[in-house]
Write a structure and sequence with these properties.
ten-stranded mixed beta sheet, alpha/beta
Length: 299
């Protein structure tokens, strides 16, 4: 891409979050860009009283005790903010070590982690949001956990969820799976992968799945779809990528989970789709929660 990439890292200091940073070498990020480390202190998970609790408490205790409680809350909140800043700065140093050509900033907040991270993303408008899939932060009040799934469901930007992955040597080729059952999805995913900067010998596997009933499935619009996808694949190969394709029948989610496990993929690219009430499709949601490797949800 011609302009600098902007990536937001949802960080909590957990092994999962640090794994997401370690994964960056195999994530196709360009040599230069702008990163924002975003960390949210959720004081509702601690003994710190919030405004609602203080309001209720004021009805039952003396003015002196209420004053002391308010002062304690202020001190503990300030400490939470400082802890968040220090942890975010540590995450920033990890990013700088992995991406020396990137400009790195930090942003901290107090509140509901998912809502605050989504608000930050709406305001900062990253090209990509990166998060660990699970874990509790180094400091108890910092959590990702199910937050990463909410980011994948509701963020307007593409979201990359790090899920651990397979142990590999540093020189092992990167393996990327693109999974789609419709032509628009396949084109969108191929375009997203093609915009990134991959290591030499990176392998791309396009898995096309025919479920036998979707009106827009790729097999329903051959040879038109075949010609378009063949050209897209050639464009990837022209960029130095090693591309193979597979056509599977059945369920897209099952096919991608099996392929990721059998091929020991580094990541799977899939579109967000749309669930019954919006958010993620069954395929995307299943990969985010169960894939054996990183999952990138493209919009």
């Amino acid at each position: 891409m011609n302009r600098r990439m902007r990536a937001m890292f949802a960080y909590d200091g957990s092994p999962s979050a640090n794994g997401a940073i370690k994964d960056l070498r195999r994530a196709g990020l360009p040599p230069r860009g702008e990163a924002l480390i975003a960390l949210v202190a959720d004081i509702s998970k601690t003994a710190i009283a919030g405004p609602r609790e203080l309001g209720v408490l004021g009805k039952y205790v003396s003015a002196r005790l209420l004053k002391e409680t308010i002062a304690l809350t202020a001190r503990e909140t300030a400490r939470a903010v400082n802890d968040a800043k220090m942890l975010a700065l540590a995450g920033g140093e990890r990013i700088r070590a992995m991406l020396p050509g990137w400009r790195v900033g930090v942003r901290t907040a107090i509140g509901d982690p998912a809502e605050e991270l989504l608000r930050t993303a709406r305001n900062w408008k990253p090209d990509l949001i990166i998060a660990g899939s699970h874990g509790r932060g180094a400091v108890r009040r910092f959590f990702l956990g199910s937050v990463s799934k909410k980011l994948a469901e509701k963020a307007l930007s593409p979201v990359r969820i790090e899920r651990g992955g397979f142990a590999k040597t540093g020189d092992a080729p990167v393996k990327i799976i693109i999974g789609a059952k419709t032509l628009p999805d396949a084109e969108k995913l191929i375009g997203a992968v093609g915009e990134r900067v991959w290591l030499e010998e990176t392998k791309i596997r396009l898995v096309k799945v025919d479920d036998g009933n979707s009106a827009g499935r790729i097999s329903a619009v051959y040879p038109y779809a075949g010609a378009i996808l063949d050209q897209a694949v050639e464009d990837l190969r022209a960029g130095g990528l090693r591309v193979s394709t597979r056509l599977e029948s059945g369920d897209l989610k099952s096919a991608l989970l099996d392929e990721a496990a059998n091929w020991e993929a580094d990541s799977v690219f899939v579109t967000a789709g749309e669930g019954i009430e919006g958010g993620l499709s069954e395929t995307a949601a299943g990969l985010v929660t169960a894939a054996p490797c990183a999952v990138e949800v493209v919009r």
